[in-house]
Amino acid sequence: MKRTDPGCVSPPSPPACLLQMELVNYERVKEYCLKVLRKEGENFKALYRSGVAYYHLGYYHKALHYLNEARKQQPTDTNVILYIQLTEMKLRRSAQRQEEAL
Predict the structure, then answer these.
(1) Is the pTM value of this prediction over 0.70?
(2) CA-to-CA distance for 2 and 27, rounded, in angstroms?
């Protein structure tokens, strides 16, 4: 892959480059990360980035799954912890809205 973004580091990582763009294409980030996970199921960065992508796409249960898998590998990573907290908050709000709608 050609290095097209000056913010990307060498060697270029497509998901990392995509996450640095001003308008992030989370669908593409998710696709790249899932490809990595098919080959390397325990890849921390791919797990974390998949969780972030799913979060921003609004798939909070899937986001939580990938983020929790990432946390198993690096339990003190502050970014993982932050996204887990954000995701759990979104899930709670969604459940409250569903209850209020009944």
Answers:
(1) yes
(2) 20
